[in-house]
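Handout, section 4.2: multi-component inputs.
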Amino acid sequence: MTGRDDAAWLRAALDAMHDMVLIKDPGSRLQWANRSFLDYYSMSQEQLIDLIDGPQSDPDDTLQYVRDDQHVVRTADHLDVPSEAVTGGDGVARHFHTLKSPIIDDGVVVGTVGVSRSLDQLPPTSPGPNHVEAKSLSRPLRLLIDAFPLAMLLVDPVLQVVADSPRWANHFGSLHASAEHGLASNYPELPGLVELVRRVMQVGGTDRIQLEVGEAVFEIDAGRWHYEDNTVGGVIVTAADVTELIQRQKLLEAANQRHDLMVHGTRLGIWDWADITASEGYWSPNVFHIMGYEDGEIPSTLANLMNATHPDDLPVVAETMKKLQTGADSFEVEHRIRTKSGAYKWILASGAIAEPDENGNRRMVGAMQDIDDRRKVQSELERINVDLDHFVHVAAHDLREPCRRQLMLVDLMLEDHQDELSEPVVGRLRQVQEQSRRMLDLIGAFRTLTNTRGLQTEPTTIVDLQQLVDDVVAEHDPDGSRAPVTVDLPRLLQGHPTLLRVLFTNLIDNAYKYGRGDAIGVRTVIEEGRQVYVVENSLAEPMGVVSDLFKPFVRGGSEVAGSGIGLSICRRAVEAHHGEIWLDDDLTHFRIKFTLGESS
Amino acid sequence: MTTIPAERPIVMVDDDAVDTELMSICVERSVLTNPFLSFDSGNSFLAHMESVRDGKQAMPAIVFLDINMPTMDGFAVLNELRAHPEFTALPVVVFLSNSDNPADVARCEELAAGFREKFERIADCVSYLDRMAPAV
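Output:
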């Protein structure tokens, strides 16, 4: 190093970087720029200095970089500009990540040093001396190195460390206190760095690697520099912490991938309008496909969507649009849309609207889903339900009446001719009556079950449970001759009144039916933090284990009277209240437990 | 309970011959002495009621009207009957297959008619008729 001008070698070193380096005075006047910068502008140092000549070139104080320089000088703080557009000599604006730092001497800001790294690609650099003389660097080099926005390491041709910046020491540790300045012995844990420097020293030019140090990721740049007589001066190494940048890139890639998968990998049609009033927007290929077109076959305009909407659905679509224009921030609407073939198909259109941007535009992004199959199944279901209702009606009358007449006719026969008939014949006739009676009960139960379905749409009210159960008991036992019922329930509940009545009627009916005459209890307990309703009685006979007791037409046993419909009706009533119902394990008691959640 | 005058006919409108026959037997077995008249359709009944208006036939004591009949159901018959001022006070009992349909019940009340489910036992029907006899 002896005999060499310090300033000259640092200039040469900075010229070897492929980041652009600018050194300015506190008045934002350019002092020096490195080769990358000059190459980018295709200018000489002098031309550039004339061009970038401090605030006087910007009398209106509108240039962002001047404001940034002044900010650094005023605050003596480092400044990180993640993205800065700079128009190069070819007239093309590229984006740079720029770091600016103050050069401080004895507490006074004597200048700034900035480093700009292309976000697009490496700026073209070539190894070789910089023949253009800059204005002189008026401050000691150490200040500049200390100020340098990137971590910097200078290595001589025999791979001895000449200098490191504080940022370098901060990231990778200070040089060992010993006189040993060998690169390899100072950074044994960074073999990648040593290898990079060795390679650049041999081959020349610049090179870049990524280096992981703990959780952080650094981009390490190395460039070989030369003195004016072309002797190799050494390698300048800079390190930029790109941990956050890489994380941002990963997130962006994931978001892009998510978007691509959503657009191309799902059946959703995605559309995007720059503003809710925009006439044309983006449609993903599936929007076209859902409408029966090839990608891009028709213009992606609002008019094309509205024109294709089924005339009967226009009011609901128009209503949705109106709500959006008057401040709603999301929507969901099902409507029919005409496809290319002229046939209509059901779609579900949904979307969300962003807050207005600085121009007052409200971006709207949404999806279109082909729900034609679902709607067809739904209307088929509705048709089946209508058929079922009709069937129930027919069953209730047309099946019931012959049965009832049969009962009457046998009754008449017995009244008129019992004395003339033998005992076995009378017995058989009684059996016929019993079977007719059972058939009538089943038809009645069947009606009740289907009626319960209709009752689920009954509006809810506040129901006085105590009163309700008292009424049910009075109905079952008008003269108080049956087993007593002790009722201890919370008084008020929001629910479907008729369903609740059906529920308690069936349960108390069952309790009477299966019980041995002890008092029937109707109360609540707390189990696992839930309020559980209990209707119980001691059983006359232990109950057999019955699965599916809550399914229609399943009975407690063949000897047990009833149609087997009562408990399935109870289950429907409980489910309409978002509750559960179950039979207690204790087989010596008839004990049904259920919960009543919030009513629908 | 409606009591009915003994001299006027008990009228049954039902398309089912078995029901009509059973009712006629029950009337016979009851304490009632009224004549029994039956019609198998709403139209034939309404034609008869025209003659009643003309004074050619006696006013019924009570009408038992089946709800489920082809062509013209019980409510249609009742509607037409009540349209005549002469028949607004005529006692009518509508026979329902199921009495738990609130819409049917409401229509009966609207048309000033009683309603009940059809009988399943002879004895029940006879005692129902017995209670219509004027107190002795």
